UniProtKB/TrEMBL annotation, chain A:
Residues 77-149 form the RRP4 S1 domain. Residues 171-210 form the K Homology domain. Belongs to the RRP4 family. Gene3D superfamilies: 2.40.50.100, Nucleic acid-binding proteins. This is Exosome complex component RRP4.
From TrEMBL, chain B:
This is Exosome component 7. The lineage of its organism: Eukaryota, Metazoa, Chordata, Craniata, Vertebrata. It comes from Electrophorus voltai. GO terms for cellular component: cytoplasmic exosome (RNase complex); nuclear exosome (RNase complex); nucleolus. CDD domains: RNase_PH_RRP42. GO terms for biological process: exonucleolytic trimming to generate mature 3'-end of 5.8S rRNA from tricistronic rRNA transcript (SSU-rRNA, 5.8S rRNA, LSU-rRNA); nuclear mRNA surveillance; nuclear polyadenylation-dependent rRNA catabolic process; rRNA catabolic process; TRAMP-dependent tRNA surveillance pathway; U1 snRNA 3'-end processing; U4 snRNA 3'-end processing; U5 snRNA 3'-end processing. Residues 32-166, 197-271 form the Exoribonuclease phosphorolytic domain.
C-alpha cells in the first residue's frame, strides 16, 4: 500500500506579463476593471456601466466587434450552440421529457419525440411510450446527445436521433471546464491506445472501452454489463489521469493532445500521474510534442524561452508537419486524395520523439528547477 | 455526505475495478490519494492544520482555555470537538443542512479519542479539581470528496502536534486564594505528546460476485471517492494508534456486513493505520525543523 504525504508548495505561475509574444495579445480583465471611458461603445455581455465608464463584470478576455464591447469569461458554465455534442446526466423524468444536467445555467431538455425508440421504429409516440419512459432512461443515466435548438431562456433542447448518440454504458466520466474542449469536426474518437473517448462540448468527457462489434439495432439502449478486461481498464484509468493533468494546466483538449499526453505518461505508473511534479513533467512533454500547433507556440516559448525549439524540429521549418490548423475544410476534401479518410489518430504525422537522445537536448524540467 | 448521481453501468464498472484491484484512478484497493498537509495556517489559534486529500479539504483549529475539570476525573483535562460542515463544500450544507453530518462526525471523534492510551490528559491539568486546560478542537470542512474521517483525523493529529499551550503556574497567597501566573516568555510553551493519537481508516465495502466461487463476496477499499461511496453497501471505520491498538470500530451506512469480513477489515485497518503514522510524524518533524524557512502556502495553492 502506498501513502504519499507532503508539504504543500505554491504552484509556479508562468507569468504572461511582459513577454513579446503577447504584445498584441489578449486584453484580460477582472470584475471591476475599467475597460474604457469612451462613451461611444455599446456594452455587450459581461460588462456594465459604472459612472459613464464601461466596467467588466466577469473575469475574462475583452472582445470588440466594431462598436460592441463584451467580455468573454475564461471560466463559465457551458453555453450551448446548435450542433454541439454533449454528454449529460438525466436528473428528472417528467411528462414527455427528460431533464438533463449538462453543466449549464439551466437543465437541458430531452423531449420524448427527440429520441429513437428501441427497435428503430418510426411512429408517433403514444401514451404507453410516456408511461414507459423510465425503462428507456432513468435518473442517473448518462447519455450522449446533440443540441437541437436553444430555448428563449437559454435552456438547450437535445436530441439523440442518430445511432451514435444514446445511453452510455460502462466507462468513466471526467468533468473539466467547458472552455477547454476544442470545437472539432467530430467528438467521438477511437484512440489507438485501446480506448474510446467522447469529448463533450460541455466539459463532460466520457472514456469507455472500444466496442467490439457494432450491433446497433437496439437503438442505443442496451448497455453491456460484461466485465471489461484489465488491459482496457488500465488504458482508461491512465487516460482519465491524463485528462485531469491537462485540465489542471489549462491545456486545450482534443484527440491529439490527449494522445500526446498518454504517450508521455507511459513512463510513470498510473496512480503517480496525479502528483504535482509528474503532472508538470507530462504537460511539458505535451508542449514539446505539440510545438507546431498555434495554441502551443506561446506556451512553449514561455516555458523554454523565446529562442528555444524542440530538439527534432531544430533546423526545420515549423508548419511542415500536419498540425490541427492544417486539416482541410470540408469542400477542400474533394480535391485531396484520401484526405477525407484520414483518421483522428494522426499516427502518420512525424512528431518529435522526446524519448530519443539528441545532441543538444532541451531539458523540459530545467525550467521547473530554476 | 455530499452525494453524486451515478448510473448502473458506471456502478458495475467501478465494482469490477475494485474486484481486479485497479480503481478508476489507477490506485490499488489499499492506496491513499496524494495528501498535502500544512500546519500553523490560522494565526489566532493555539494550533492548526490543513489537510488536502484529492479534493477533500479539511481545516482544524485548536484553542486551549482554562476551565474546571470534570467532576469524575479532577486531575485530567479534556477535549471538545465541533465539526462545522461549511456551505463551501456543497450546496446541501447550506443553512442547517450540514448539522446532521456535523453532529455525527463530532460524536465519532469523541468515541475515537475517548481512550486513555491516545492522549495523556493528565498533562493538561493545572490544579487538580480547580483548573485544567480544555482543548476546543474545531474542524471545518471546506471541500468534500469522500473520506472525511481519515482527512479529519490526520488534520487533528497534525494540529495537536502544532499546538502550543502557554505554561502557567499556580501561586498561593496568604489567604489561600490561588492565582494563575502566565509565563513572561511567549515562546515558553507546553507541547503535547502526539505519539499515541489514533488515525481513522475508513473502509468502503462492496458486495460483489466473486467469480471463483460464484458467491457473494465482499471487497473493501481504503480512501474511497464520492463515486465509489455511492456504489458501496456500507462503510467500516477503524481508529488505530501507532502501536496497533484499535480505539474505535464503527459501522456507517445501511448495508449489511459479514462478520468474517469485519474481522478481516479490522486486521487490515491495523496494518494500514500503522503505516499511516510513520510518514505523518516524519513530515511533521520535517515541517517543524524548517522553522522560519517554511514556505507558507495557506489557501493560495
Amino acid at each position: 500500500m502506498a501513502v504519499d504525504m507532503r508539504l504543500p508548495t505554491v504552484r509556479k505561475q508562468i507569468s504572461l506579463a511582459g513577454s513579446n509574444s503577447n504584445a498584441d495579445g489578449k486584453h484580460l480583465v477582472v470584475p471591476g476593471d475599467v475597460i474604457t471611458s469612451d462613451t461611444g461603445f455599446m456594452r455587450g455581455h459581461g460588462t456594465y456601466m459604472d459612472d459613464e465608464k464601461l466596467t467588466a463584470s466577469v473575469a475574462g478576455e475583452v472582445e470588440r466587434v466594431n462598436k460592441l464591447i463584451c467580455v468573454r469569461p475564461l471560466k463559465t458554465r457551458y453555453n450551448g450552440e446548435v450542433g454541439d455534442v454533449i454528454v449529460g446526466r438525466i436528473t428528472e423524468v417528467q411528462q414527455k421529457r427528460w431533464k438533463v444536467e449538462t453543466n449549464s445555467r439551466l437543465d437541458s431538455v430531452l423531449l420524448l419525440s427527440s429520441v429513437n425508440l428501441p427497435g428503430g421504429e418510426l411512429r408517433r409516440r403514444s401514451a404507453e411510450d410516456e408511461l414507459t419512459m423510465r425503462d428507456y432512461l432513468q435518473e442517473g443515466d448518462l447519455i450522449s446527445a446533440e443540441v437541437q435548438s436553444v430555448f428563449s431562456d437559454g435552456a438547450l433542447s437535445l436530441h439523440t436521433r442518430s445511432l451514435k448518440y444514446g445511453k452510455l454504458g460502462q466507462g468513466v466520466l471526467v468533468q473539466v471546464s467547458p472552455s477547454l474542449v476544442k470545437r472539432q469536426k467530430t467528438h467521438f474518437h477511437n484512440l489507438p491506445c485501446g480506448a474510446s473517448i467522447i469529448l463533450g462540448n460541455n466539459g463532460f468527457l466520457w472514456l469507455y472501452p472500444t466496442p467490439g462489434q457494432q450491433d446497433e439495432e437496439e437503438g442505443g439502449y442496451y448497455t453491456s454489463l460484461e466485465l471489461v478486461p484489465l488491459s482496457d481498464r488500465e488504458v482508461i484509468s491512465r487516460l482519465r489521469n491524463c485528462l485531469l493533468a491537462l485540465a489542471a494546466h489549462k491545456v486545450l483538449l482534443y484527440d491529439t493532445s490527449v494522445l500526446y499526453c498518454y504517450e508521455s505518461s507511459l513512463l510513470y505508473q498510473i496512480k503517480d500521474i496525479l502528483k504535482p511534479e509528474t503532472m508538470d513533467e507530462i504537460v511539458m512533454t505535451v508542449y514539446v510534442l505539440s510545438y507546431d500547433t498555434i495554441w502551443c507556440r506561446d506556451r512553449y516559448q514561455l516555458c523554454f524561452g523565446a529562442a528555444a525549439r524542440p530538439p527534432a524540429l531544430m533546423g526545420q521549418q515549423p508548419g511542415k508537419f500536419v498540425g490541427d490548423q492544417r486539416r482541410p475544410s470540408l469542400p477542400a476534401l474533394n480535391f485531396i486524395k484520401g484526405g477525407g479518410k484520414r483518421d483522428s489518430s494522426r499516427h502518420g504525422a512525424q512528431h518529435c520523439n522526446v524519448f530519443e537522445v539528441h545532441d543538444s537536448p532541451v531539458d523540459p524540467t530545467a525550467v521547473l528547477n530554476t | 455526505m455530499a452525494s453524486v448521481q451515478i448510473s448502473e453501468a458506471e456502478k458495475v464498472y467501478i465494482m469490477h475495478g475494485v474486484r481486479d484491484d485497479l480503481r478508476v484512478d489507477g490506485r490499488g484497493c489499499e492506496d491513499y490519494r496524494h495528501m498535502e498537509i500544512e500546519t500553523d495556517v490560522v494565526s489566532n489559534t493555539d494550533g492548526s492544520a490543513k489537510v488536502r486529500m484529492g479534493h477533500t479539504d479539511v481545516l482544524v483549529g485548536i484553542k486551549a482555555e482554562l476551565r474546571r475539570p470534570r467532576p469524575n476525573v479532577p486531575d485530567e483535562g479534556y477535549l471538545e470537538f465541533f465539526v462545522d460542515c461549511s456551505a463551501n463544500a456543497t450546496p446541501e450544507f447550506e443553512g442547517r443542512g450540514g448539522e446532521e453530518l456535523g453532529v455525527e462526525l463530532s460524536n465519532t471523534l469523541y468515541k475515537v479519542f475517548n481512550s486513555h492510551r491516545s492522549l495523556d490528559l493528565r498533562s493538561l491539568c493545572v490544579c487538580p479539581g480547580e483548573h485544567c486546560w480544555v482543548l476546543y478542537v474545531d474542524v471545518l470542512l471546506l471541500q468534500c470528496d469522500g473520506n472525511l474521517f481519515d482527512a479529519m483525523s490526520i488534520a487533528i493529529k497534525a494540529a495537536l502536534f502544532n499546538t502550543r499551550i502557554p505554561k502557567v503556574r499556580v501561586l498561593e497567597d496568604e489567604e489561600g486564594g490561588k492565582e494563575i501566573e502566565l509565563s513572561d516568555d511567549p515562546y515558553d510553551c507546553l507541547r503535547l505528546r502526539v505519539d499515541n493519537i489514533p488515525c481513522i481508516v475508513t473502509f468502503c465495502v462492496f458486495c460483489l460476485l466473486v467469480h471463483v466461487h460464484q458467491q457473494v463476496g465482499h471487497r473493501h477499499v481504503v480512501d474511497a471517492t464520492l463515486q465509489e461511496k455511492a456504489c458501496s453497501a456500507a462503510s467500516l471505520l477503524v481508529a488505530v494508534t501507532p502501536r496497533g491498538a484499535v480505539t474505535c470500530v464503527r459501522k456507517l451506512g445501511a448495508g449489511s456486513l459479514d462478520p468474517d469480513s469485519i474481522f478481516e477489515m479490522t486486521e487490515t485497518g491495523k496494518r494500514v493505520g500503522k503505516a499511516l503514522h510513520a510518514p505523518l510524524m516524519e513530515l511533521l518533524q520535517k515541517d517543524e525543523s524548517l522553522g522560519k524557512k517554511r514556505q507558507k502556502v495557506g489557501f493560495l495553492a
